[in-house]
Amino acid sequence: MTKQLEFSIPSMREHCSQAEWQTRVDLAACYRLVELYGMSDMVANHISARVPGEHDAFLINAYGMLYEEITASSLIKIDNEGNILSKPAFVGGDYGINRAGYVIHGAIHDAKPDISCVIHTHSWPGMAVSSLKCGLLPLTQTAMRFYKIGYHDYCGVVLDTSERESLVRDLGDNNALILRNHGLLTVGKTIPEAFNAMHRLELSCKSQLAAMACHVELNPVSQQVLEETYMNYQPQTRRPYGLMEWPALLRKLDRIDPSYRD
Looking at its record, which EC class is this enzyme (predicted)? Predict the structure, then answer.
């Protein structure tokens, strides 16, 4: 039997500002929620959050940890070029970052200073819709929120920084992007906002696949109604996303396992 090595992460709380620590707690919660709602891919994918008050610094997961293991202290601080600025003294192993993570996330954080959080997933519904030529269809009220979603053509594993410009261009002013033949990406001015977008985008993909699987005629919605519904979801017509449900989601996590706060 293979002996399991001891693994622990000393607290980073005394090594960062109060604002950074709060961001760490919320980001760790976001990782746990993505896992809880079935959108994780073992140790792959990334969720990043800008460090408050630091123009060129964001937090991202340690490559090799499951989302269910992520804590506030386990997150690694890097700059937009992928240089590690600070990380915990892992006990029982050492972890760095995934190159594709900083290429994708660094591109958006660098180009869009108003964006605080970027979420990228490889969920099966997201990957399935990303491989459909029709992309995401506005079949449901939830999907109509993403009526003008962006698309980014697949160019291979995102390891080349030359792809950054096209990633940012294809995202545009949208808060969501479908990476064709790859997966999903959402952004937000806050962590709760980005998670709200990803949760709803995931539901949109699931409902589309379920409807298409019935092999019957799909019910279209008029162009006018699509436009009006899309506008009802835009920032200028409603309160910011995530405000109402985030405290409840944190309470949910605290009931299940509050270790994300460590």
Answer: lyase
